Amino acid sequence: MIDRLVHHHRILGIDPGTLYMGWAIIDSEGQKVSLVNFDVLDVHKLEGQYARLQQEFFFLQQLIDEYKPTELAIETQFVDKNPQTMIKIVHAQGVAIAAALSRDLPINEYSPMKIKMAITGNGHSTKQQVAAMLQRFLHIPDERMPRKLDATDALAISYCHFLQLGLPVTGESSAKDWTTFAKRKGLTDKQLTGPNAQLMAALATVKKAKK
Description:
Elements: E1 8-15, E2 20-29, E3 32-42, H1 49-67, E4 71-75, H2 83-102, E5 107-110, H3 112-120, H4 127-137, H5 149-164, H6 178-184, H7 195-210
Parallel strand pairs: 1-4, 4-5
Antiparallel strand pairs: 1-2, 2-3
Helix pairs in contact: 1-2, 3-5, 4-5, 4-7
């Protein structure tokens, strides 16, 4: 469980992959959140699955040592029609978890649908829609947005975990997901007919909260 007496959190988000691993780090102070850094580890040129996993393990240990996050958030429960792909992703997840455990880092797991719901309010949002929402939430300039969406996927994972600490756009710590947030704001299902409508409603609320 998260210690709610600790107001500062540095969250490391990991999007595990066998060829590309997205990572992101955000800081939170109470209801305020800021981007520290995010990028993608490219291991696709290494020969052999285990060489790639080893590189990811050592890289994550170095990342943790450098940025000193207080907790790890990682995407799990990945489902794919190809069993071999699922096995490889699970291996990458295990390596990331092992690296965190080697540094005594608390681990928080989120499903892909949970992450999308937390960011956009729609569990079937595209990666591009998630990235666009995060860019606006964190005021990321266009030139800093990465080319590979693995990085913004990792950022979504870390931001999803931040939302579990208290939804920032409401100031009410008990609102931990889009559904609770929408009900409190009087946004009905009819008003939120798709990811674009949900995106615009959320952005409007964020702008209003900042005034």
